[in-house]
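Reminder to self: tokens first, then the designed residues, so the page reads top to bottom the way the pipeline ran.
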């Protein structure tokens, strides 16, 4: 059983059920107290009936006030009221209509002194109470477990597994909805998974699919297990305090063939391949389909004639290559949406470059220095997961010393090193020292603008 998550960008909804409960209680008290002959009718034994009804009306108003306060001023498992009483009750749309009909019957029986309407009102209370009791029984001794993936990637559809266990000995549970809440600093996602039946002393597995649009840390929970079985008038809920977090890595695209030509100087490497066939430098890797921007000299004509489409030879990068990436995540103190977009683009570009380097240039080395609110340095000796975890939570800053970092890297030259600087500054505000650094033969300076990075980096379709 599965469900898809839906993004919720709106504010916390108005507690309609609580407001209607308050208004209904106040209206009934006003009607009974404003008519003297109605109050006078409750003498002797009738006075006890009046007290019972007054108590019920007060409970109705208190319950409505509780719903209003809880929904407007609390947030899940962090609330003391949730820890004291995890059970919740609310009325469905059908239940609200049912309550409205009962209110009309009760008011009409009191004002018109009709015993028949009072009898109909009393008969309608029965299904309401039975629905609430059965729904509460369905949730007894129920438990929910969530299984998250190890890591996530923005723009990728991911599955989260849920397991609902029924600890009752004889009674099964029907029509259970497990509602999960996923929160991020930029978005909130509400998801639900339906379990049709969970037999006694058994468990059932389900899952929901969710697409994370942002990188960073997502908070899961609490899970709310609800049911309105069997009549659909009252929905009972049980809150399971199962908080968890998931790190979502930045969205990854695809590096173009121009990236390899400009960074690794593929034309020169191709000429060297024709002159030597060593075991370590520029080894043949595979034959693949021709892509826009590929070098025509790499076309393998025999394979092209056999397949009927252009096929090119692809060579692995040399072992002594080193890629040095310097990322300047700059943004002002009060960033605009364009400033944040440039930071996100720079992070995704770097993540894609490292991903491409790991899969297509396994023998080359890489060094990444990220200058944002914090400075982070990574090299090939560390795990790539540590780099992607930092990219997931990296934030832009106002100050960065990219020139000094560039000088430190250039002070330790390598025979075949290539330095790439990616800056999230505005094109007109890029520091002149970085532009001067870009004039060096082994330094490529890029600005995190879509029109400039599109030659080296393209987005993949959402998976």
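Designed residues (463 positions):
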């Amino acid at each position: 059983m599965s469900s898809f998550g839906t993004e919720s960008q709106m504010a916390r909804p108005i507690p309609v059920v609580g407001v209607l409960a308050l208004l209904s209680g106040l209206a009934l008290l006003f009607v009974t107290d404003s008519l003297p002959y109605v109050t006078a009718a409750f003498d002797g034994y009738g006075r006890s009936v009046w007290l019972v009804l007054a108590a019920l009306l007060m409970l109705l108003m208190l319950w409505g006030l509780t719903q209003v306060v809880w929904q407007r001023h609390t947030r899940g498992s962090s609330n003391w009221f949730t820890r004291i009483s995890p059970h919740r009750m609310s009325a469905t749309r059908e239940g609200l209509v049912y309550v409205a009909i009962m209110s009309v019957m009760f008011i009409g029986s009191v004002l018109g002194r009709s015993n028949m309407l009072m009898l109909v009102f009393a008969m309608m209370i029965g299904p309401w109470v039975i629905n609430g009791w059965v729904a509460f029984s369905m949730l007894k001794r129920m438990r929910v477990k969530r299984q998250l993936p190890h890591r996530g990637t923005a723009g990728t559809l991911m599955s989260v597994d849920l397991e609902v266990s029924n600890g009752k000995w004889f009674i099964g549970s029907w029509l259970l909805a497990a509602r999960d809440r996923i929160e991020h600093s930029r978005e909130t996602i509400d998801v639900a998974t339906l379990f049709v039946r969970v037999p006694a002393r058994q468990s059932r597995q389900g899952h929901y699919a969710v697409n994370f649009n942002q990188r960073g840390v997502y908070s899961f929970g609490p899970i709310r297990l609800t049911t309105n079985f069997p009549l659909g008038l009252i929905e009972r809920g049980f809150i399971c305090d199962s908080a968890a977090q998931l790190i979502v890595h930045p969205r990854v695209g695809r590096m173009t063939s121009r990236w390899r030509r400009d960074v690794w100087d593929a034309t020169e490497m191709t000429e060297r391949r024709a002159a030597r066939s060593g075991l370590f430098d520029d080894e043949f890797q595979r034959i693949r389909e021709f892509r826009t921007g590929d070098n025509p000299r790499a076309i393998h004509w025999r394979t092209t004639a056999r397949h009927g489409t252009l096929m090119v030879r692809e060579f692995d990068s040399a072992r002594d290559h080193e890629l040095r990436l310097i990322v300047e995540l700059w943004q002002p103190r009060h960033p605009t949406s364009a400033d944040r977009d440039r930071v996100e683009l720079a992070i995704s570009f770097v993540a894609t470059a490292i991903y491409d380097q790991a899969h297509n240039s396994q023998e080359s080395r890489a060094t990444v220095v990220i200058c944002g609110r914090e400075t982070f340095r990574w090299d090939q000796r560390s795990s790539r997961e540590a780099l992607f975890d930092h990219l997931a939570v990296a934030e832009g800053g106002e100050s960065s010393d990219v020139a000094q970092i560039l000088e430190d890297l250039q002070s330790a030259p390598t025979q075949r090193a290539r330095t790439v600087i990616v800056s999230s500054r505005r094109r007109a505000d890029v520091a002149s020292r970085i532009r001067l650094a870009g004039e060096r033969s082994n330094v490529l300076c890029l600005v995190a603008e879509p029109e400039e990075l599109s030659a080296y980096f393209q987005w993949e379709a959402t998976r």
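Confidence is low (pLDDT under 50) at residues 4-14, 74-81, 266-281.
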